[in-house]
């Protein structure tokens, strides 16, 4: 028995247990023997019986407590306290490189050094709407990094996310990136801004807004860009102009893959003249020596990506390591790793200055320009794009 257990027993039993019984006078002893007619043999056992029964209630309670404490210390420990542990993360498509090449290895090394425990990751990547639907249908994700905050809200409404991600650093936004246009080497179509994508003969690759969060960001980028420019030119938003530009561009879409990454692959295979996507995708393509160029629109949106814990799927034994991983995402080490893979940091703009490949945007904006996703989705994605563009 360990020293800690002996300390517990000494605290509970400051003196010998045999002293804890009620003393009985000789007179009372004789009276009781006459009353119950005890035999000589029973009388010989009587002192022992008095010692164990006269104080039985408090003594048994204390003894039981000791047994419980000892027994609990011998129970199997939860998974997070011993042995290897696996975290399951679902992320939207373009998170793959930064997580698998930098964030996962960085956290694994840190946790191993501090706790002597091996952490492994299982990951799955697809369009943000797709992975959200998978989790709602029972996929075993414990953490999810999403393209749009609306998907985080869907998980909360479904009872899968309990904690408020806005309480995390940067209101739960782990990184961000602007939307740009990818064109073929030499820019043969002369594309310089979103309206140029409506030129005759243009063939555009664009992810599917039904399954891809990136597609919804792209729609907001096109529509919001025209609002921003018209507001600067005439001190008022020209909504008809923005709608007409969105309609004209969408008329040239020839393929709508399920995610931003699938759209990039489709473009890399030689399909289309242009692709609207995250700047990060274009920079990764250039690093791979793809024959492309990046066109930065005059005005465009920064997509912002929330990270959430899927509380419904997290066991008590894993809670500590998962919470620590969430904190790690906003550490300087992780934020600099995101910048290395062409995401913008949300915690320190000095990190962003270190990436000289980032393009210069004259009039950037965020989802706040539309008063958040609670307004942007019904007012722009549904009422404008779905009802007045896609269905026309």
Verbal overview:
With 392 residues, this protein is α/β, with parallel strands linked by helices. Among the domains are: 3-73, no CATH class; 176-304 and 359-390, D-Maltodextrin-Binding Protein, domain 2 (3-Layer(aba) Sandwich). It is 47% helix and 15% strand. The protein has helices spanning 3-12, 26-36, 40-53, 56-73, 96-115, 128-136, 149-157, 213-234, 239-250, 260-268, 279-287, 319-329, 332-340, 349-353, 373-390; strands spanning 85-92, 119-126, 143-145, 173-184, 204-205, 253-255, 274-278, 292-295, 299-309, 363-365. Strands 1, 2, 3, 4, 5, 6, 7, 8, 9 and 10 form a 10-stranded mixed sheet that branches. Helix 5 (96-115) links the parallel strand 1 (85-92) and strand 2. The longest helix has 22 residues, at 213-234. Mean pLDDT is 85; it is low at 5-60 and 65-81.
Quaternary state of the chains: single chain
Give the class-level CATH name of the domain at 176-304 and 359-390: Alpha Beta
Helix tally equals 15
SSE order: HHHHEHEHEHEEHHEHEHEEHHHEH
The gyration radius over C-alpha positions equals 33 Å
**Arithmetic mean pLDDT:** 85
Report the uncertain regions. 5-60, 65-81
CATH homologous superfamily title of the domain at 176-304 and 359-390: Periplasmic binding protein-like II
Fraction of residues in β-strands? 15-25%
Secondary structure: number of strands: 10
Label the CATH architecture of the domain at 176-304 and 359-390: 3-Layer(aba) Sandwich
What class would the helix/strand composition place it in? alpha/beta
Distance from first to last alpha carbon:
79 Å
Sheet bearing the most strands, described?
10 strands, mixed
Shape, please? globular
| CATH fold type of the domain at 176-304 and 359-390 | D-Maltodextrin-Binding Protein, domain 2
Helix-residue proportion:
40-55%
């Amino acid at each position: 028995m360990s020293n800690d257990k002996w300390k517990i027993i000494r605290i509970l039993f400051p003196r010998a247990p045999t002293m804890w019984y009620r003393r009985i006078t000789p007179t009372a002893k004789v009276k009781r023997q006459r009353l119950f007619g005890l035999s000589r043999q029973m009388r010989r056992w009587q002192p022992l019986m008095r010692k164990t029964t006269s104080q039985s209630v408090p003594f048994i309670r204390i003894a039981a407590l000791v047994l419980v404490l000892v027994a609990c210390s011998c129970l199997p420990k939860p998974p997070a306290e011993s042995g290897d542990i696996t975290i399951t993360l679902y992320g939207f498509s373009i998170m793959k490189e930064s997580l698998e090449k930098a964030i996962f290895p960085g956290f694994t090394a840190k946790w191993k050094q501090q706790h002597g425990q091996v952490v492994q990751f299982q990951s799955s990547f697809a369009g943000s709407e797709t992975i959200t639907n998978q989790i709602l249908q029972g996929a075993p994700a414990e953490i999810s990094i999403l393209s749009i905050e609306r998907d985080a809200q869907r998980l909360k409404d479904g009872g899968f996310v309990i904690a408020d991600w806005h309480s995390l650093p940067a209101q739960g936004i782990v990184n961000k990136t602007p939307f740009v246009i990818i064109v073929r080497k030499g820019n043969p179509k002369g594309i310089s801004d979103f309206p140029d994508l409506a030129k005759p003969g243009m063939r555009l690759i664009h992810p599917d807004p039904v399954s891809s969060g990136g597609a919804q960001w792209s729609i907001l980028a096109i529509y919001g860009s025209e609002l921003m420019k018209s507001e600067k030119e005439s001190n008022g938003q020209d909504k008809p102009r923005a709608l007409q530009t969105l309609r004209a561009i969408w008329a040239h879409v020839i393929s709508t893959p399920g995610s931003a990454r699938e759209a990039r692959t489709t473009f890399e295979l030689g399909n289309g003249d242009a692709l609207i996507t995250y700047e990060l995708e274009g920079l990764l393509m250039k690093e791979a020596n793809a024959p492309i160029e990046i066109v930065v629109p005059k005005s465009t949106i920064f997509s912002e990506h929330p990270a959430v814990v899927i509380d419904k799927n997290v066991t008590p034994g894993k809670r500590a390591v998962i919470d620590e991983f969430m904190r790690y995402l906003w550490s300087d080490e992780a934020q600099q790793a995101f910048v290395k893979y062409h995401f913008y940091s949300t915690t320190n703009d000095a990190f962003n200055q270190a990436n000289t490949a980032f393009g210069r945007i004259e009039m950037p904006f965020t989802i706040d320009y539309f008063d958040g996703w609670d307004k942007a989705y019904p007012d722009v994605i549904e009422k404008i794009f779905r009802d007045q563009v896609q269905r026309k």
